[in-house]
Amino acid sequence: MRLSDVPGLTQMALALALTASFLPAAGAQEASGQAIERRVNELLGQMTLEEKVGQLNLVSHGPPLRWEDISEGKAGALLNFNSAQDVARAQALARQSRLKIPPLFGLDVLHGFRTQFPLPLGEAAAFSPRVSRLASEWAAKEAAYVGVNWTFAPMADLSRDSRWGRIVEGFGEDPTLGAAVTAARVEGFRKGGLAAAAKHFAGYGAPQGGRDYDTTYIPRAEMYDTYLPPFRAAVEAGTASFMAAFNALNGEPSTANPWLLTDVLRTQWGFDGFVTSDWVGIGELINHGIAADGAEAARKAILAGVDMDMMGQLYIKHLPDEVRAGRVPESVIDESVRRVLRTKFRMGLFDRPDIDPSRLDTAFPSPESRQVAREVARETFVLLQNRDNVLPVPSSVRSIAVVGPLADAPHDQMGPHAARGHKEDSVTILEGIRRRAQPAGLSVRHAPACDLFCRNTDGLPAALEAARQSDFVIAVFGEPQELSGEAASRAHMELSGKQIEVLEELAKTGKPIALVIMGGRPQILGPVAERIPSILMAWYPGTETGPAVADVLFGDVSPSGKLPVTWPRATGQLPLYYNRLPTGRPTLPNNRFTLNYIDEAITPLYPFGWGLSYTQFAYSDVRMGQKQLDEGQILEVSVGVKNTGAREGQEVVQLYTRDPVASRSRPLRELKAFEKIALKPGETKQVTLRVPVESLGFHLDDGTYLVEAGTIQVFVGGSSLADPVGEAEILKTFRVPPMERRASASTSVAQ
Prior knowledge:
By secondary structure, the protein is α/β, with parallel strands linked by helices. The protein is 29% helix and 19% strand. It has 22 helices and 28 strands. It has an 8-stranded parallel beta sheet with strand order 9-6-5-4-3-2-1-10. The chain has a 6-stranded mixed beta sheet with strand order 11-16-15-14-12-13, with helices on both faces. α1 packs across α8, α3 (33-45) crosses α16 (330-346) and α8 (129-145) packs parallel to α9. The longest helix has 18 residues, at 175-192. It is globular. It starts with 10 loop residues before the first helix and ends with a strand. Residues 1-11, 17-29 and 743-747 have low confidence and may be disordered.
């Protein structure tokens, strides 16, 4: 059957399907591998040195790009081309070049193209690879529709410090969750028609002081255990490329780090795609103090393993001379070009027709994309607290006051890096509440109370009056988009401006209040956590923010998100994470000479994996399979989960382990498996979580994976506070060399 024969398939849907189909599946790639290598080598043999270096030049739309660079073979990849007209023009120019090599068209498609989905950190809160895959596929479909074929995503940087603004672009603090989400996003992008670029390799999410672009110090064993697993998952999921990080890692900038780019990525993991620098990252080697000039920076980067220069113009300017002078072997250039060409052949670019220049991104958001965006968004909301069951909005409520500047902020709800997102497409929280309230005959009042950054509270009296005249108050505060994302590190994580003052005044009205926090990371709530009974973290939910938030506030859907990061009580606790190492002096109450602060509790406000529902879940009938484990076997834990409440709901069943006695100090808990399940009232499901014994060890500094004989403690529950359920014994110690693939991540089954 032809796609055009399918009844009801619109012209746009047909175009989307055809666009996505040009990226071959992994099996097809493998089957055609030899043919691709033959074509690559034939083409490489025809290239001049300058044409080779041209393939390694990545230039953005606008200066310094000259359109004739494309026809002259001086631009192997282009970025920030986001219209079909510009893409078609560039493709036509590439066909005029001597060798007619098609360019890559890259764009930051992080959480949507025209239709915006929740930011990646919010998406991670869904604890659902299915949701991550779905959101990425839709983002890719829209971008590919206008000719984009490569995305600078997913960001696989683990971060334990919410002062760092780019935490919003990643998956949080846990390597197991991060690996699952990263792999799902790579797969979704590919299915939708985009090649992925896993970034930023590596350690970028742990800068000193939470300061973006600052240096990182991470022991190699810790890199292997914590920071590298999501990147390895990207390789195994089929990412086409990697992006080198801006930061220096242990004194060696990632853009000139052969241990990362060659030893780990290529030799140990077998990655045969290409690596690009970040924006002018090669030139920044001069600022890092390891290169005296552009020629030395280009030389060090290419020799370390950076194949493509993004916006630096240093490769195309210096590498031909470096080769002719004998400082860079031409074989190094050949290998980098081979990686780029291999990727282009795998993507089918040489055999793909040029984009239709009449295509416009105004085809989106479509009704279908809006529905998917709404469904994804409501999976991501985390109900942090709900004292006295303030939420959902009771059926007895006849009037609602919506207070706060972010309730009607169509631009800000999209968050940073919104690609081709238009605020005019956004449905705000205020509009979503009005749509939901109108059929039920509820009146809705809106009062911002303060400006976007809450520096001016001239509107507070009107907001208080609106609250007093209403049965229920929905307050919407948090971080405007400008305060989150790249170059948005914060030293003070409190709700900015006078938000706390406004919320305390609202609490004094005595009205039931639900606070919706919009933002890209946990914020310090201070007295708000005590004064406001119900708090919902909504992240930046995207285009369909309003309907999705209303679905949850009114109880049409029960919240099911879980925190992908630990939520601190105070900025001074950062970095803060659940899987920390034990100390020789564990915390004891009233003993200052143990692990403590003298001015704040040592515990977080909300732990990793935390999230409430409108119903309740009971865990019972825990069974462990084989309790003595040998190499190649599986730790299997089965648990019954019952919905004991009166509403439908979803629960994320989480399995943690601990190795209490090892040759190296091991974390107090480590997430090893999770499964999200849906339960009707009174329904019970038996969930089986499986962890390969090869995932119960740790790395040595040289990358060797060590699994030691001894006892493993097991915990199962709905957060990182999960209860202990038993122990298993690993019978013998064994090692896995760095170049051997370990067992896949955990699997789970719900019945």
